[in-house]
Amino acid sequence: MPITATAGGVERARFVSGSLMRHVCVMAGTGAIGLIAVFAVDLINLFYISLLGEKEIAAAVGFAGVMGFFHASLCIGLTIGIAAVVSRTVGAGRGEDARRIATSSLVLMTAVSAVAGTGTAFFLHPALQALGAQGETARLAHRYLSVTVHTLPLLGIGMATSALLRSIGDARRSMTVTLGGAFVTAVLDPILIFGFGLELDGAAISAVVSRIVLAAIGLHGVTVRHRMLGRFEPSRLGGDARALGKVAAPAVLTNLATPVGAAFVTHSVAQFGPSAVAGAATIDRLTPVAFGLVYALSGAVGPILAQNLGAGQFRRVQEGLRDSLLFMMASVAVAWLVLALGQGVLIRAFSADGQAAELISLFCSWTAASFFFAGGLFVANASFNNLGHPLLSTAFNWGRATLGTIPFAWWGSRYGAAGVLIGQAVGSSIFGLLAVIVAFRLAAKLARQEAPAGAAPALDAPLAPTSPHAEIAALTTPQSVPKGAASS
Questions:
Q1: What pLDDT is stored for residue 474 in this prediction?
Q2: Are the CB atoms for 435 and 376 separated by under 8 Å?
Q3: Fewest CB within a 10 Å sphere: which of 74, 93, 354, 371?
Q4: How confident is the model at residue 409 (pLDDT cuts 50, 70, 90)?
């Protein structure tokens, strides 16, 4: 589905017609495979590291994972902006603008991730200390991160190209981008960790190679297959950056809230020893794999809502939100059942004992249920980001990471490491429920603005901006269809 000009103009956006539930299932399903592949890289690393039988190394991977979570959240926030603006532009029938913005987005992603990744290298030691890492565990985590932080631009490019492919509806190719990186990790990890005896260093090298493959496959998809990238225009970069920033900046702030909350939880758990940290690290890596469909919804729902918003089909926006939540609830129910039944296998697979085993069992049996509400927050955030209310997403995520995490985890720590996780789950559930309520109210308000039957959809007659400021507004602000417009 290349974005190319045709005799009839620009190829019609994919999500403005057909079954919304089918679009949600296809986008979330293929997106989940790709997303699970990304997080499976960390899970595979931890699995092989756990086979070494050293709690300090497993705990080091846990602390390194929290730092990596900050980096990944930055990139995810940027990709949300990329997918939202490009999808909306495609939905409005503006193919040339979509190509130019796609190019600008990759340039901006590379620059921001390079500064963030390399800049982190200067603060690794105090950051790890703040998280509670000490002694040999801190030294090992520092050594691992010293290798991986400099390759953040490769991860960013891979994630950005995957988002660009999702924005035009090519879910399958978007999935292959992340699958390629996971496949490399699955193959290289045992070779480097055990075959060459490199242990943690082998895991770090494997992660670097995986990111190289991730970026290469993604660039091939957007340049060769779909020809999504236009000519880079430095004079337009500022305007494109502002357009992307209107969504991406709040989205970045939103996504950084999650690792902030995770950092506090890790610090709280660290006081109970390396075994507790290793158990929490296992849960952190199991969660996105087990609930991959739920995590994928935040990226899958965005293009669907944005294209229909750009086309002026506001009732489909409301229906898309409803179908996404129904899909989420079914996904969480299945994942929770699988975790509850398979917890014994998981505990043995990761060589967990003591507190680590207790925490994994608690997660599989009970706290995993909090994802009914966390999943609602993911879907609500996607609607906020793509319907012109990104600051609501920021407010809810930071609310969950602070008011919904710190007091609850602090209170829970009085009852041990298990209490920390229970407290976190309770606070997260409260904010997830509130976010869903607000999202439905906004979607209902938007649906009441649906143009009357016979009106020309915005997709068929996009308004050309007359100035750089008008262009930014056109790319980031929903355009309502005037009442009484003549049919095309």
A1: 36
A2: yes
A3: 354
A4: very high
Bridge partners (DSSP) listed for residue 6: 9
pLDDT at 420 over 50: yes
Amino acid letter, 249: A
CB atoms < 10 A from the CB of 125, how many? 13
- Region of residue 264 (phi > 0: left; psi between -120 and 50: alpha; otherwise: beta): alpha
| Burial (CB count <10 Å: 0-12, 13-18, 19+), residue 209 | middle
Give per-residue pLDDT as tens, 425-436.
999 999 999 999
For residues 33-38, average pLDDT: 71
Residues whose CB is less than 8 angstroms from the CB of residue 293 and which lie 6 or more positions away in sequence, other chains included: 28, 29, 32, 327, 328, 331, 335
| Alpha-carbon dihedral angle through residues 284, 290, 292, 293, given to the nearest 10 degrees | -140
Q: How far apart are CA 246 and CA 360, in angstroms?
A: 39
Contact, 40 vs 46, CB < 8 A? no
Which pTM value belongs to this model? Answer: 0.68
Give the pair of three-digit tokens for residue 271.
Answer: 């006081």
- At residue 406, φ and ψ (nearest 5 deg) are -60, -55
CB 207 within 8 A of CB 148: yes
Of 318 and 340, the structure prediction assigns the larger pLDDT to 340
Return all residues near 122 (Cβ < 8 A) that are at least 6 apart. none
Give the per-residue pLDDT at 156. Answer: 94
Q: What letter represents residue 154's amino acid?
A: L
State the Cα–Cα distance between residues 305 and 233, nearest whole angstrom: 29
Cβ(162)–Cβ(79) below 8 Å? yes
Beta bridge partner(s), residue 10: 5
Report the C-alpha gap between 324 and 28 in whole angstroms. 9
pLDDT digit string, tens, across residues 234-265 = 888 888 888 888 878 877 887 788 888 888 99
